[in-house]
Amino acid sequence: MTGPVGHRVWVLPAGRIPFPSNGSEPEFTSFDALCVLNAGGGPAELALTVYYEDAEPVGPYPVCVPARRVRHIRFNDLIDPEALRLDRPFGVVVNSSTPVVVQFSRQDTRLPGSLAIATTLAFPADPGAPITVAAGPGGVGPAGAGPVGACDHDPQDGG
Amino acid sequence: MTGPVGHRVWVLPAGRIPFPSNGSEPEFTSFDALCVLNAGGGPAELALTVYYEDAEPVGPYPVCVPARRVRHIRFNDLIDPEALRLDRPFGVVVNSSTPVVVQFSRQDTRLPGSLAIATTLAFPADPGAPITVAAGPGGVGPAGAGPVGACDHDPQDGG
Amino acid sequence: MTGPVGHRVWVLPAGRIPFPSNGSEPEFTSFDALCVLNAGGGPAELALTVYYEDAEPVGPYPVCVPARRVRHIRFNDLIDPEALRLDRPFGVVVNSSTPVVVQFSRQDTRLPGSLAIATTLAFPADPGAPITVAAGPGGVGPAGAGPVGACDHDPQDGG
Amino acid sequence: MTGPVGHRVWVLPAGRIPFPSNGSEPEFTSFDALCVLNAGGGPAELALTVYYEDAEPVGPYPVCVPARRVRHIRFNDLIDPEALRLDRPFGVVVNSSTPVVVQFSRQDTRLPGSLAIATTLAFPADPGAPITVAAGPGGVGPAGAGPVGACDHDPQDGG
What we know:
The first copy, chain A, is mainly beta.
C-alpha cells in the first residue's frame, strides 16, 4: 500500500494580491494563487485561514481538492466567509484533511506593458504526522483550524 | 563510500505552460521546465506523472538522467504517452530510481516586449528512505508510480 | 492544546535592496522584504542580525509580530541600530522568541517601464526544538542572537 | 556554546547564465549567482562542482566565505579550473567545510527594456550531520568533493 504524499499544514506569509491589473482579462489579471496537488486516493478537504497585519484572522475558507487532482486557487476567488481585499498584506495557513503539497504563485501586471511572476513552495509546518488543531480566539484556531467544507458542497467551487 | 544526493520523490503543484510566446525561438519561447541533477554514480530513471484539475493523471513519462549529469526538461517536450496541452493547470510527481534533486523553472513571454521568469525547488516527498509505490486507478499509482523508461531507450530524448 | 507553527531561526542569504526605483511611490519603490506569519497565541519578538560581505554583522534589529498576525517588513525601514544601505549585498538571520514562518520578497523597478519580482521561503535553521544562542564577537552571536525588542516598544513600528 | 547554522552540502539543479545582456554594466548584466551566508565563527571553505548535460563534472571551484560574512558569487566569475560558458544548462553541488546557507539568484536582461529576476533556496542535501565525500570518476566525487581552496588563497577572490 502507498501512503499519501505531502503534509497536512502549509503556511504562506507573503500574500498581497497585486492591484490594479493591466492587459486583457483574465489572462493578464494580477493574482496571488495557491496551487495544491492531491496525489492521494481520497478527496482533500482544505480549511484556509487568512491572517492580516491589523485584524483578527478570517476563516475557515473551505476548499476541496478531489483525489488525484491538482487545483489552482486564486485568492480573488475566496469569498466565503468574506472576500479578500486587494493590495493588502496577508498570510495563510492551510489545514488539509489528508497530505497534499502546496505552492504559491503570483502574477503582477500593475505596471502597463510589463509582466512579473514569482513562485515558491509554501512551508510544510507539520512534521509529517497527523496533527490536531483546536479552536482559538474568534472561532479560529492558532493554526487555522475549524470545520472544513465538505467536498460535495464547496463554496469556492464557482458553483 | 558516498551515498547519492537528494530524494526519490519530488512534487510540483503549480505547472501551467504559458501560451502564447513572443520573441524569437527558441530562446524566448514560453516554457515550464523541470531541472534535475543526478550527482550519483549511476543513471536515474525518472517516471513523471502529470495531474490535472479535470481529468485522471497521465503517465508515466519516462526520462533518463545519466550519472553525474544535469538535465533540463521542458514540459512541452513530453509527448509520450500524450503531449501536454499549453495554458492548462497541472502538477507533476517525479519518481526516481535513485536520489536526485529537482527544481522548477518558468519563462513567460506571453506579453510582447516583456520577459518574466520564476523558479523554486520542487517538494521532496519521501523522508529520505527508499519508497515503494504501487499502481492505482488508471494504471497510475497515487504517487505517480509505474514502469520507468530504461535509460537506453528514452522517448523524451529527442531520438 | 495546539503548539505554535514554524521555527525560531530563519536565514536569508541573498539580500540586496535594489536601487534606484522608477515609477510612483510607494507602490513601485524597489524593496527587499521579510514577511513573517505568527499563527501563535502570543507575540513573537524577533531579533534580526544583518550580515555583510565586508563588515561585521549589525544588530539586533528588534521587530514585533503580534499574536495571530502577519507582518511584512521592508528592509528599508530598519533604522535602529543603523539604516541598511541600498544596493549592497547582505544576508539576515532572524531569531524569534516563538515559532513563526518567514518568507522573502523582492520588488525591483531599477529599469524604467519594467517590473520584476521574486520570492522564496527563508531557510529554517533550527531543527524544531527551542535553541539558545549566545553573544559572540562584536556583541552579536554567530546566529544573530542578542536582546530582542519588547513588543510594546518596537523601534521599527513607525511609531 | 552555539553550533553553526545551516548545512554542509547544497544542490542547485537549474543553472543557466542568461546571455546576452542589455543595459548598462555591471548593474544590468545578466547573471546566475550563489549567495552564501556563513553565520559561524570560523571561515567556510567551499568546493563547488559544476554538472553539465553533456560532459563530466568540473571542479572543485574553491570559494571562501569568512566568518560572520555573506558572499554573493556570480557564476560568471568562476574561472579556475575553467570558466563557465554562458547560456548552457548546468547544476552545482556546494560542499562546505562548515555549515552555511545557500540561496540562488538570477537576473535576466536578455530582452531589451525588460528586467526579469528569480530566486530560490538551494537544496540542503545532508541531514544535518557532518558528511564525508570521497573522490569519484574524473577526480570529482559524486557529491562534488575534492580539495577545497584555503581561505587565505582563494582564486575566485578577484585577487
